């Protein structure tokens, strides 16, 4: 039954008669089955021993608990580990043993009490916390609901609306807020935590403090009619925000059942629903994303070499446009002093103003105070020459995508920056070897590809060439972590991983439209699948100028699999260049609302004539499933090439790149994970069939063909990686 043998609890009984039970399972004291069984043994012992009057539950090394052991989810799903029988933990251990005990218990919370961790704490009769502790029920981010009584106790402790908000957003609250909400009873410093908790437990015993079984609290719950109104509203919101997800609705149902039929009925319903959801595709996908995201910073041959990241004390950014100012914002927000260089006063001021505006929008949203804004901005200095580059540790170039300009800049940087300085480029498509061609510093040249807006989007694509030194990669990984980005380390090629994988996406959409599919049906089908927007709405947002410039990189580099449609250039000639011109595939009103435009038919007709293709009646009645597959299977095909060429080291890195760089729905597990749910044979046969009808654009690559022939998953590790890394 053991999922993690290092997990255990200890029990120490003090002279005051208080037993301290400590959860131990590094790094976050997760509740593996070993920990839970040991917890039950310790608890039973504490209840039996005459010298124990009261109990304090806490976690080792300043962390209460990060919740149920997520590494065991896979074992339960695959049937390798038998899941505990429903209700064993939530009813038998936490309710009937802990909460119903004749001895009072207090949770002493430092660091974090998340998921099952908070559920254990809520079953205690009081909670003492430090102000920095994070308390929450983030189970929904993993595709399940709280399963140790959280759906019943949290509403009774903090009220219905707040509890639903905490569960549905998966966002934790800090100690102080938890105190204000009534989730914890007192806030103390870490040094006083255990002492206060043990005193509190004795006070409960002596009747000086209330003995509260939270499962039976009623004062925070609205009367049934009012509660039902709140639940109805929240249910409608959940349906609207996540129409493809079932588990938020299950969570709301379970909360409702507890209010209508009593907390015990709620507990049993919760246990049953938890077990069901644990086996759902959504849960499998989200758990995969959880671990894949944490795995991106482990790069074989680089991060396992014992290299220590060097300290980056000052960063320079070249170019104060949208990207440069966004990158500067991300850096100063994490306390890096930054020099922003532009070519003239006007552009420089524009860049500095953009950074200020980025910070101001945080102030407006209540995420930052005015005072903090000024303090943060004081880390940013403007420059028009390279004088202040003499002591920088890292430069990030973010100028327009022009090869000769970038070559000149890198030659200048080599002259002015110190010899240890990392020379990074934010290019999204250009080969880094070309950029560094005029320097002798290839070992410190690296790609730092941010996604727009750079201070908001979570992904950082770190691009290494054959010559980039491992130390420089380790340094940039560290900066990425400090500025709270998820880094994905990839090899050097046109478009790197994210843009290259996704270039067939728009192309497939154009191919379909020229053959008779409807622009708006495509966008609707793709949005329904879970993308934030369809490919045509995305083109409008990015702007046709950018779409044409990046498209031409692929035409040059991968001519055999590029679909050359003139639709976008034709529209651009007519000054329809996307949202910025208020007209693209859609027309836009002043409030950025996109409306379909029948006018686009004439451009489609013209593009069709240039391509020399005819309308295919089949394309006019594609199902949503067909559309999704015809757009995403070419993406899978390109992702396979990227993987086979060793541009990505792990298929899971491509999943994270798709989710964080393109907004691919995480509950589908990322592009390769989703592909494996369809199967390599199926994907190969679909692409092969389309390539016969519609041409080489759909031709399955050799890797896909080989995997399909073996019936093997696409994401299994490469046998012989032709690594470019
Ligand atoms: C029945 C119950 O209701 C069901 C549950 O409790 S489900 C679990 C609910 N809990 C959660 O969702 C919390 C998930 N964890 C997190 O959000 C974050 O890891 C955290 C806030 C706890 C810590 O964040 P941070 O300090 O940035 O460290 P992070 O890198 O994420 O995690 C550190 C390590 O702990 C592991 N870890 C974190 N939470 C874990 C958990 N609940 N189970 C197993 N491992 C866990 C991570 O995988 C990572 O392992 P690695 O070092 O091998 O990559």
TrEMBL record:
Pfam families in the cross-refs: 3HCDH, 3HCDH_N, ECH_1
UniProt keyword Cytoplasm, yes or no: no
Residue stretches making up the 3-hydroxyacyl-CoA dehydrogenase C-terminal domain: 495-588
GO biological process: fatty acid beta-oxidation
InterPro entries the record matches: 3-OHacyl-CoA_DH_CS, 3-OHacyl-CoA_DH_NAD-bd, 3HC_DH_C, 6-PGluconate_DH-like_C_sf, ClpP/crotonase-like_dom_sf, Enoyl-CoA_hyd/isom_CS, Enoyl-CoA_hydra/iso, NAD(P)-bd_dom_sf
Record keywords, A-Z: Fatty acid metabolism, Isomerase, Lipid metabolism, Lyase, Multifunctional enzyme, NAD, Oxidoreductase, Peroxisome
Domain (3-hydroxyacyl-CoA dehydrogenase NAD binding): residue spans on this chain: 314-492
Similarity annotation: Belongs to the enoyl-CoA hydratase/isomerase family. In the central section; belongs to the 3-hydroxyacyl-CoA dehydrogenase family.
Protein name stated in the entry: 3-hydroxyacyl-CoA dehydrogenase
Organism: Actinidia chinensis var. chinensis (Chinese soft-hair kiwi)
